[in-house]
Design brief:
heterodimer; A: 4 helices; B: mainly alpha; 2 domains; globular
């Protein structure tokens, strides 16, 4: 099924996106209210919380351009050195920007 | 993982305001990212009101950018819905990881707070809970900050975006990546977590190569979670 993007139908598409996204924001909490949180589940969730971020980042680092890789490398190094996220993010973006000028 | 039976879930006007201010400096980057989205959306041919509605109601950057890829004179609805779900499936995990604290709240507050759950404020609040500090104010206040600046950025992108011809050359596409990495590296580190992260990264890359698009986030997260149940945490934090 296709929806035209003229007039109100574009807003309907946005509403569909909004409902799907809301389902993801509420779904995890809703499901958890039926599953008792045992120790093993806690271990699973604890390990999972960092893994989500790593899973998002891995393809970015491997498949990205040199700018992306340099940005991530710079961010990791800066955050280890300074222990502050904001300068690390700025340094990472700067590294990507500089490397992409060449 | 810290025990959740304390009063760490409580929040009031003051802690929400503190959360708003804690995330406000990061939100400046979100403004730039939002501007990049606004610009890209104008170029994809979306009307201004549709772009603003999307940023306000969806409030999930990666999926919004992905929607632009599918946007044409006709949009495949099922593909759009599945793509948005796949990219935003990590919200399911956010809700699940926050549940030990959320469950102490009445349903209206519990689901109300989750309306603005996003990568940055979720990571901040989890970090706070992990240290035994209250984190709900960070989640709600920080989320409101991110949402406001995401909208502001989108608006700026629509109206003044003409000057930002190539956001990539300014490194703007790396904002979220650098932020998430800073959250991973800046948090708790030990051998167990390192091995779990390696498992997650390998699973994610395999899924990225061989499984349908955008499944890598869920696959990597689940693989890391399973690894965590195989090598359980020995020390009990109380």
């Amino acid at each position: 099924m296709n929806i035209e993007t003229a007039g109100y139908s574009a807003l309907i598409l946005v509403l569909i996106m909004a409902v799907v996204t809301l389902a993801t924001r509420w779904g995890g909490v809703y499901v958890m209210s039926f599953v008792p949180i045992g120790d093993r589940v806690k271990q699973f969730i604890g390990a999972m919380s960092g893994s989500v971020l790593v899973a998002l980042l891995a393809p970015m680092a491997i498949e990205g351009d040199n700018g992306a890789r340099l940005a991530l490398l710079t961010t990791a190094a800066t955050v280890l050195l300074l222990k502050k996220p904001l300068p690390a993010i700025a340094a990472g973006m700067l590294a990507a920007a500089i490397s992409r000028q060449f | 993982m810290a025990d959740a039976d304390t009063n760490l879930h409580e929040f009031d006007r003051q802690t929400v305001w503190v959360g708003f201010r804690r995330l406000a400096p990061i939100s400046l980057f979100v403004t730039l990212f939002g501007a990049a989205f606004g610009l890209a959306a104008v170029q994809a041919g979306l009307e201004d009101s549709v772009i603003m509605a999307m940023s306000a109601l969806v409030f999930a950057g990666a999926s919004q950018f992905a929607a632009l890829e599918l946007w044409g004179t006709h949009v495949p609805v099922v593909t759009l819905a599945v793509t948005v779900f796949a990219i935003n499936a990590r919200h399911l995990l956010m809700g699940a990881t926050l549940y030990p604290w959320l469950r102490h709240l009445p349903p209206a507050k519990r689901y109300g707070v989750m309306l603005v759950a996003s990568d940055a404020n979720w990571a901040m609040s989890m970090q706070a809970f992990g240290r035994g500090q209250p984190g709900m104010g960070l989640l709600l206040g920080g989320g409101l900050a991110l949402w406001s600046f995401w909208l502001l950025g989108t608006w700026l992108g629509i109206f003044f975006g003409g000057t930002l011809h190539d956001p990539r050359s300014l490194g703007l596409d790396m904002v979220m990546g650098c932020f998430l990495l800073a959250m991973v590296v800046g948090g708790e580190k030990n051998l167990r977590l390192l091995l779990i992260w390696i498992v997650a990264a390998c699973a994610s890359l395999l899924a990225w190569r061989y499984l349908p698009e955008n499944s890598h986030v869920v696959v990597g997260a689940l693989a890391g979670g399973v690894a965590g149940t195989l090598w359980t945490e020995k020390k009990v934090e109380h």
